[in-house]
Amino acid sequence: MEQDFLRAPLGKLGSPVCRIGLSATYRPGRATVHKALDEGLNYFFFFGIDNHMTRVLREVVPARRGQYVLATGAYNYVFAHQNLRRALEKRLRQTRTDYIDVFHFLGVTNPKQFTPRVRDELQAVRESGLVRAVSMSTHDRRFAAALVREGVLDAMMIRYNAAHRGAEAKIFPRLPESDPAVVSFTATRWRFLLRRPHGYPKDGRIPTAGMYRFVLSNPAVHVCLMAPSNLKQFQSNLAEIRRGPLGRGRHAVHARVRGRGVPQLQVLHVGRHKKARSRDRAFKIIRATSYSPTHLRAQYHRG
After folding, report:
1. Which residues have CB under 8 Å from 108's CB, separation 6+?
2. Structural domain boundaries of the chain?
3. DSSP state of 284
4. In angstroms, what CA-CA distances link 155 with 126, 134, 257?
5. 27: left (phi over 0), alpha (psi -120 to 50) or beta
6. Residue 21 Cα to chain centre, angstroms
7. Residuewise pLDDT in 10s, the chain (303 residues)
């Protein structure tokens, strides 16, 4: 299967996936999960408390298990961590399935938390036959890239959005030929990128799903997670995402990351404090490549 904007093989796993994955983090309701299934989404990420999703999955997935990719994991509590094997067995019971496709060690903030004990537990899970791949979610890009190069991980779940683009330099050009699966989360930077930035036209459209289109426009990302809070939001996001990749814009140009030919978006610097500046840069990317009449775009990019 060749990759396109909305469909791709899941890296080394090879499973055909919709590149928009559904997360139930904001408890969108069972109707949203059913709608996602109807719309062809087949990558589902869930925590143990996400019963909105697990109740639907255990009704639908077992009869057609090979069509879906289930991803979950065990929690890192910073001062300790869940027993990975026990967490896996609990998730299997919750979904009434024989295996999990991608099992993560969740929430690693620095390499010290990935202890020798965690490494051994993750390898034991990998060899158990109850998972197809082991992974880690982290903000430490270099550490994630190092672990996949060492073969410790089969996949990674990383932060990547229009405001946080460090993966374009620290991960994507350093991925090994083994083709680990790359899953991105917080495309909207925990919704901060959905706020109206300084200087934005009051009647201008807030490019919500454009943040997902930005992520999906990078072929190094196999799956981008979406975490809607209700059915209406899910439908609106999906309709916008289906418009396809972002195009070139006045202040967004494509460059090549050495060795892998991955598009890298470069944008102008905007002033003000750091957090607002990253949001404004993100909006400049999305606006310049996708939205608004020419006069509004020129107005927003002035100066």
Report:
1. 76, 114, 136, 137, 138, 140, 143
2. 7-247
3. H
4. 12, 6, 21
5. left
6. 7
7. 667 899 999 999 999 999 999 998 889 999 999 999 999 999 999 998 999 899 999 999 999 999 999 999 999 987 778 899 999 999 999 999 999 999 999 999 999 999 999 999 999 999 999 999 999 999 898 999 999 999 999 999 998 887 768 889 889 998 999 999 999 987 665 455 555 556 655 665 555 557 888 889 899 999 999 999 899 999 988 998 998 887 654 233 333 332 334 444 333 333 334 444 544 454 444 444 443 333 223 322 322
CATH tag for 7-247 (out of 3.40.50.720, 2.60.40.350, 3.90.1580.10, 3.20.20.100): 3.20.20.100
Write out the two tokens for 104: 């993560």
Asked whether the beta carbons of 66 and 99 are under 8 A apart, the reply is: no
Instruction: Measure the CA–CA gap between 73 and 287, rounded to whole angstroms.
Output: 36
Record the pTM. 0.79
Nearest to 220 by CA among 255, 272, 256, 168: 168
